[in-house]
Amino acid sequence: MIDKILIMKLLQVIAIYFVIVALTKCDYLLIKMLKNDHKSIEDAYRKETKSECSVTDFKNGLKMHNEARKGHGKNPLELNDKLKDEAQKYAEKLASKGKELLHDKKSILERGEGENLALLYKNEGCGLNQAIQMWLDEERKPGKNTGGGCDLHFKQMVFVKTTKVGFGLAKSEAGSLYIVARYDHVIEKRRAQMLLL
Asked: For the sheet containing 78-79, what is the strand order?
């Protein structure tokens, strides 16, 4: 009986220790962000993603995706840090070149990831939701979008195998905004297009 009580007390102490460690790590990250001259967590996120987008903007982008998916009977997506980092790197690469939108063949062909791209020449604020709305509009107006007369952006957003998404944004020297949405699965038609290029 005494052994059971000791074991229970020991388990409680261990659990409390891990909670304290987790909270300390979160506090450390928050303090680190705030010490870097950020007025808020939103500012820290903007600096981390090198865009004018806030955490709220990214959550709204996810919400727009999930509302479209729900309307088509698909499971909701969740934000993914790995995909966000990849999308951010690719957006920065596109912006540094300041040229046309070209899909990342490596992510599509080698890793099987899906990708939506947008380029906004004039925008205010984040621009992410504006790009997502253009992709959503493809469902309502197939063949009349700015993406070359197809609805692959919309289809990628509601693709049944997709479960995760990450967003990246970067401005070119000319002020154009490059937006990348990276998904954990690519639709087959996009993969076929990449093989032909």
From this structure: 78-79, 164-171, 177-183, 114-120
